[in-house]
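so my prof wants the structure for this chain in the tokens format not the other one, which i didnt know existed until like an hour ago. anyway here's the sequence
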Amino acid sequence: MALTRIHADILAVRVIPNVDDALVQQFNLQPYHRSLAMFTSSIDDVGYTALDEATKRADVEVAYARSFYAGAAHASGPLSGEMIGVLAGPSPDEVKAGIDAILQVTKSDAYFEALDEEKNHALYAHVVARTGSYLSKEAGIDIGEPLAYLIAPPLEAMYGLDVALKAADVELVKFFGPPSETNFGGGFLTGSQSACQAAADAFRQAILDIARNPVHY
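here's what i got, hopefully its the right format
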């Protein structure tokens, strides 16, 4: 069964070339972080994946990243989406390069997959071949380690994680107990790249099986 891709939309972007000292303190920025770039995304996990990629392609760090409660369907405004991300860097050019990476990742590389035609039932089974500074810190692993980023609705996520952990030589390094801010659940798994891919594939298949037979146990 081919699943339909659900790509995130980047809803708003702004660059602050020379950030005010008050925000420097609030974001706990380093002295060399003089510029900020911020964006909102319609899908939070894709946005976090894109932030990590930005740290690999530009001289930037993630200053702030948060999901909004209840998800994009209950956003505070038309440009809010499901999360906000803020990059910090030494210059406007660097943070703009980070935003360029984010736009590219959300357009083609990272996406949810729909389990139904209405796209109301979806999962995220994405493998990061080499983590950047953001996801490696979030997962508590070394920069450059592979990561399986697995997210789904609550029951599906918990069952799928168990299947994924048994399917490959991987370790659960971060657990997202349901409900998350957006009412999902999941986790980060690490191991070799091939093991992460096998775990992600098993996670996807387990959730497909639930979607086809939700009350068969």
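also thought this was worth mentioning. The chain has two domains: 7-109, 114-210.
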